[in-house]
Amino acid sequence: MGITYNEKEKVFKLDTAKTSYILGVTDEPGHVVHIYYGKKLRGGSSPTPMPGIDKKNKHWFFDGAWLEYPTAGVGDFREHCIEVKTEDGCNTFEPLYLSHKIYKGKPELEGLPATFAEENNCMTLELVMKDKLIGLEVTMIYSAFEDVDVITRSVRVRNTSGKVIRLTKVLSACLDLNNEDFEAVTLHGSWGRERHIQRRKVGHGRQGVSSERGVSGHQDHPFAALVTPGTNQTLGEVFAMNLVYSGNYEIRYELTQHDSIRMVAGISPYNFEWKLRHGEIFTAPEVVMVYSCEGLGGMTRNFHDLYRNHLIRGKYRNKKRPILINNWEATYFDFDTDKLLSIAKQASELGIEMLVVDDGWFGNRFDDNRALGDWVVNEDKIKGGLNYLVSEVNKLGMKFGMWFEPEMICPESDIYRAHPDWAIEIPGRDPVRCRNQYVADITRKEVRDYIYDSIAKVLRSANVEYVKWDMNRPLSDLYTAGLPADRQGEIYHRFVLAMYEMQGRLISEFPDILLENCSSGGGRYDPGMLYFSPQIWCSDNADAIERLYIHEGTALIYPLSTMGAHVTDCPNHSNGRTTPFDTRGKIALAGTFGYELDVTKISEEERDQIPGQVKMYHRYNDLVREGDYYRIASFRENNWYDCYMVVSKDKKEALVTYVQVLSVAAHGMPAVKLQGLDESITYHVDELDRDINGDVLMNVGLPVNGEFGDFKASLYHLVSQ
Ligand code: DGJ
Predict the structure, then answer these.
(1) Alpha-carbon distance values, 471 to 101, 153, 435, 611 (Å)
(2) Which residue ranges of the chain lie beneath pLDDT 50?
(3) What spacing in Å lies between the alpha carbon of 521 and ligand 1's midpoint?
(4) Measuring CA to CA, which of 56, 189, 382, 656 is 20 to 30 A from 157?
(5) Domain stops at, among 310, 338, 357
(6) What is the pLDDT of residue 153?
(7) Are residues 189 and 329 in the same domain?
(8) Cα separation of 672 and 699, whole Å?
(9) Of 472, 516, 596, which is best to mutate to test ligand 1, by the most ligand atoms within 8 angstroms of its C-beta?
(10) How far does the centroid of ligand 1 lie from the alpha carbon of residue 197, in Å?
(11) Residue 653 is part of a domain; what is its CATH number?
């Protein structure tokens, strides 16, 4: 395991437990070429002769070469990673091998979130390439993990030219593969239906996912997996990329004329132009690459383990989160201290552990048209002040949390009236007034300092133990008074860096606060945000059936411990569907689990179920949070039922969730074949009061109790005998 360099062959081999990634340096002039990525190979040599690159050969052209970091302008007309402009107007960049170093551990990326590792579980290769003609260097950074089958990549670009160089595109990684009739698995959606899985054949031409919204977005997700035909949860080859970044991005793939596939990932070049002065470095975000020859399930579990152990930080990372009740769907903006305390009182009697006050507690915020940026407690609503409310909530034995939307300013706000230039807008042009709010120009230090300080002041004033950080509109009308005309192309990326800086400050000043990110639901659910918060609100749509789609897509990459999931009232506020309270609870159990309803107003029958659900959460959350996730069946595919399970790492315990979404007449109930168990263990299935062997459960199946009717969920708890 680790990283080796075969000096004779000039080949680098990166090994994880089950995968190998191989690259090499060609003979003079020394291009860095890709050789192999896939199932682990023995030895330290190249499995193929080093591909030659001979620009002087009349039969050779760049267009067929496999390059680790393809560039624009040299005659490689496929997807490429970098475009530059020099002062003399040239845009060709041909970096050649300069040096390398291999070391234990993993470097941090300046200003950016990234996975982390210890010296004993990761090795890193930094390979420097340089174009001596224009004086620009690229350092490719590869890390190979030992405890997960993951290779990460990122790049640093350094100007050594003595002049200004403009970077108009800097992606983070490229992967060339032989075509195997790949299909692409990607995630798409909209508000209220985030991260639905899509699968389609990869054809010729450029395809992929991207965002130009300034945030990663509800619509396309910064993830793509190329899979061989027939790949399912257990079989098939998967090559996946997930970008650790929360702004504009692209992941693109292209079936080329030579029947190879090129896949690239990084910051979107849309409206991107970075002025790099002599000596300056630009760092591009990290791409996480997973190869699995055990189908999508193998990929999923690698992502989950990586993110749980090497990305998420803070005291809640491996801890049960308090069961919260959020007042958003309960009251929207219509609340005051008395109302909140009545909810908290009732909730505390039922076993709920934290009250979260959502949007509307500050400034003149009685609807969503005003006051963002005025982070001062509205004492007409919060009568007696924040400290009084929090201490009353604490007296009930509950924690207290609150909502902010730090990156925004409403035109109707004191802050905007005082500083109209603190919003991102173009002088003289009417900006888009999406949700009646503008994006605050946090690229300017004075703006982000002011916003951070006003938020921190509120947090310092009371015992606040949870923060929901929301972000409810994309970026548009880009202009900042903080940068000259020739640097306006830096705004998108500087915005993301500024937001990361603010979140970093927040969690270092308040390390005990549980931070939950949110963006109109799950519009910025990406690994970049998980570096700062161990959980993200999945979607504003908490309908149990819609959540099956959302949770399936989200859990394809992200651990269940990160998925913000609440039991809400019915008919559901987003789609009008009514599902049993019991089903809503069992489906929310697959995430962080909480409530978002007026617990004083729901029926007694529903209220009476809450203590049982609280008990269920406490009983199973350790397993759900820390176990291995297996997708057994998908309602999306079979139009009948959904089934997933979580197995403890020692395989002695498992929890199966079976949801009969639509009742099907004249069908016997399925016996669902489980996965991930120990076939030599006999499991007691509590709900069936039966002992069943692991091999039977995996090869014959678990006999699920189909109930008559739609939207019925059941749990099966398996314990080793
Ligand atoms: C969008 C979030 O997703 C909701 O949960 C809620 O916090 C609203 N914003 C408040 O404006």
Answers:
(1) 40, 28, 11, 33
(2) none
(3) 7
(4) 56
(5) 310
(6) 98
(7) no
(8) 9
(9) 472
(10) 24
(11) 2.60.40.1180
